[in-house]
Fold this sequence. Notes:
- The chain has helices at residues 22-28, 34-45, 54-63, 68-80, 99-113, 138-153, 173-181, 198-208, 211-235, 239-258, 265-268, 274-287, 289-299, 309-317, and strands at 52-53, 84-89, 92-97, 125-130, 158-161, 164-168, 188-193.
- By secondary structure, it is α+β, with helices and mostly antiparallel strands.
- It has a four-stranded antiparallel sheet.
- β2 (84-89) and β3 form a beta hairpin.
- α2 (34-45) packs across α4 and α10 packs antiparallel against α12.
- The longest helix is centred in the last third of the chain and has 25 residues, at 211-235.
- The termini are far apart.
- The relative contact order is 0.14.
Amino acid sequence: MTRPASLAPVRSPKPRTKKVSLAQQAKKFTVLQPQEIILGLFGEYVSEHEQVWSGGLVNLLQDLGFSVAGARVAINRVCLRDLLISQREGRFIFYASSPRLLAVIEEGRHHTFSAKADPQWDGSWRIVLYQGAEGHKADGHRADRVRLGRWLTLRHFGVIQEGIWIAGGGESRELNRLISRLGMEGQVLSLNVSLNDPQEARNVIQRAWNLELLSSLYDMFLAKFEPVYETVNKKGVSPLDAFVIRTRLIDMFRKMATIDPNLPDSILEVEWRRKDALELFYAMHPLLAEGAREHFEQCAIRTSLPIDMDTKKARKQAPRQP
């Protein structure tokens, strides 16, 4: 019996993958993510034993363009990740850094401020392979792999393929300490290798890192902050503006540092403005520190007395100085 044409099986067309332009990719790096901003604020302005008032933290996130609802959701999610410790006193909630957050902050600070315009390299490569643990389910493997990859990225590792990372340099002690801290002994294999063929090295670099995107980001960073730097030097800015500018400066620079292979320009064979971007960051970061810290502490750091919410609201609603 012949099947009617209307009932004949029809192949679904393959979904077209929308090509994302370089400009669109770069633009994503300028978007602030509230959870990452919260972690960054604690790293910059909150000491180990200080507490932050929840309402003040929400106000600071509003200064950066987030809604009240979005700010509160982000704070709750950071708490669920065991990165903040909450304490309630009457109507007030205060947050302090958890031991886990302190470790994250130290790692992030080292990563951000160790960036160099033309780093040294001994010519060797370090490859890391995630093997997984026996008895783990697929979801457990995936979660561990993602967690390991997130930490390796902070050490300038690029992804060759899923579960395989590479970075320049043969030092293994710091990597072994990381694997031990993550509880992944026996699940990760680390190899020190040499790539003697220059073309092979170029192929690996092109596969592991998006240098075209990174070059575009350095250009965007300079275009965004060079005029601001000139204004700050000539006229100065208010504590609020210093806080907003410095937060955006650190956030974008940190994202760029995360995808930078930290290899010499001569090896990467790329002409870009990395040196100019690093010099600008290291000039602006301390220049804005005093004003930014003043604004943060006035809004959120706990004083010796309970914080009066009505006073805080009045301060928030008061007209700002130009």
